[in-house]
Amino acid sequence: MTGARGAAPAATGRQGYVLRTATAEDVGGARAVMLDTVYHDLRSGYVPRWHADIIDLEDAYLRPERCTLLVVRCGDEVVATGAVRDRGPQAPPNPRWIADRFPSGSTAQLCRIYVRPEHRRHGLARLLVRELGAFAANAGGYTSLYLHTDPAVPGAEPFWRSMAHEVCDERTLPGGGQGIIHFELPLPAPAGA
C-alpha cells in the first residue's frame, strides 16, 4: 500500500491477510470489530461522545479527504481496523496543554486500531500504524501524528511504548486525569520526498 486514498488492495504476505483502504463493503465488518473492542477490551461499552464515529464510519473516515479507514481482511471477514482523523485531542477532557500541542487540522490522530483477539500477534497492528502514518504524510498539512491509549487494555501500553514517544501519562497527574496515555509518533516523509 502507498497510504494514498483509493489504493488497490495489498496482500500483506501474512497468512492470507489483505490490508486495504475501507470501502462501503467493509463498513459493517469494521464497525463490528470496533464495537466488540469497546465492549470487551475497553469495557466501556458504546459511549456516544467517545464512539460516535463508529456508528457513522462513512462520514468520519471514508468521505473526508484527509481522513481514512484501513481494514485488514482474512477471507470474507474484517479482522482489524485503523483510522486517521484530522482532529486533535479536545480539552476538556484532555489537559489543555495536550490539546494546544496537537491542534485539530494539523494533527493526524491515529484511532480505532483494533485487532480481533484470535488475529493478534501477527504484526497487523504494526502494519496498520505504518500505513496510517504513510497516509498522513501523503495527505499533506499534517505536522504531527498523535494517539492516546487506555493502559488497562491488555497489551496496549507496551505496544505503543515500543513505537511511540510518551507525551503524557495522565495516571501521574493530580487525580489521575482520565488514566490514559498520550503518545506522538514520528511523521514519515511523504512518498517521493
UniProtKB/TrEMBL annotation:
A Pfam family assignment: Acetyltransf_1
Chain ranges of the N-acetyltransferase domain: 17-190
Chain ranges passing through the membrane: none
Matching InterPro entries: Acyl_CoA_acyltransferase (IPR016181), GNAT_dom (IPR000182), NAT_camello-type (IPR050769)
Source species, domain of life: Bacteria
Enzyme kind, highest EC tier: transferase
Enzyme Commission number(s) of this protein: 2.3.-.-
Keyword Endoplasmic reticulum tagged: no
Name of the protein this chain belongs to: GNAT family N-acetyltransferase
Source organism (scientific name): Streptomyces flavovirens
Organism classification: Bacteria, Bacillati, Actinomycetota, Actinomycetes, Kitasatosporales
